[in-house]
Amino acid sequence: MTAERIHVDADCLPDNQALALRCHDRWLIGAACQQRLALDDQTLEELAPLLPDNLQRSEETPWPLLARGSAQAIDLRQGAFALRSPSRTPWRALLAILAIACGAQVAQDLGHRWLLQHQTAEVTEASLELWRQRFPDEPRVIDLARQVQARARQAGQPRQSLARRLDNLASQWTNSDGGDTRIRRLDYQQAQGWTLQVNAPDFSTLERLREALAQQGANVQADSAVPAPDGVSARLKITD
User: Fold this and answer.
1) Comma-separated ranges of CATH 3.30.70.990 domains in the chain
2) Would you tell me the crossing angle of helices 91-134 and 144-156 to the nearest 10 degrees?
3) Which terminus in the chain has less CB density within 10 A, N or C?
């Protein structure tokens, strides 16, 4: 048990008049008297001439009287003897630390997100630049992933697929009104596709041949078409 207050017992006497209170075989002298003393019987008699003339002696039960007077008595629990409050959990400090930690985590997450977005934008821009360099014939990029997949599917198709279509077309063409058309040369280059050198009776027959190739799903461009002794000579570039 810890004492909350400590007093000199003589200082707890009520201050309405000078009083000497009998307590445990001694006299407590105080109240309106300036002195605060605890004297035995003999010492009280010896010092009586120095005490106030109106000093009243009382032998009533001391504890109720001392309890009432302790309110105005000097509390000796001061300075190094002061009563220390029980230690309390520093909730404010803990909350501040928690807030700082949460703020740091949020800042880190935002930083990582910005970094990822920045890196993604750089990769996307580099991919678009590479796409424009590799495929300048497709200046408009709508969905890069799908366009790359389409190019990959085209690259994975057998090289003979277009050759088969050309062979089928040649067979059909010679059996129709284009029988006078002669294929003089057929070349293939990986970067440029097929090159078809033909002789046709006239420009209209050559145009029907180009349309027939287009119907086979080929991309046909007339590189040159000039008059020849037997009709028209033309070179066609054919790609898928």
Assistant:
1) 158-239
2) 40
3) N
Distance CA 65, CA 14 (A): 7
* Cα dihedral 72, 75, 78, 82 sign: negative
Structure tokens given for 112: 């990582």
Task: Please say whether the beta carbons of 15 and 72 come within 8 A.
Answer: yes
CATH topology of domain 9-81: Nucleotidyltransferase; domain 5 (3.30.420)
Amino acid at 136: P
The pLDDT tens digits of the residues spanning 54-98 come to: 888 888 888 888 888 777 878 787 877 777 765 555 778 888 888
Q: Between helices 160-174 and 203-215, what is the axis angle to 10°?
A: 140
Return residue ranges of the chain for CATH 3.30.420.
Answer: 9-81
Hey, what are 240's tokens?
Answer: 């898928």
Q: How far apart are CA 160 and CA 8, in angstroms?
A: 117
Please identify which residue in the block is written with the tokens 């501040």.
96
CATH architecture label of 158-239: 2-Layer Sandwich (3.30)
Residues 6+ apart with CB under 8 A from 209: 173, 178, 181, 198, 200, 236
pLDDT tens by residue, 86-135: 555 577 888 888 889 888 999 998 988 898 888 888 877 777 777 677 76
DSSP 8-class letter at 78: -
CB 12 within 8 A of CB 70: yes
Residue type, 29: I
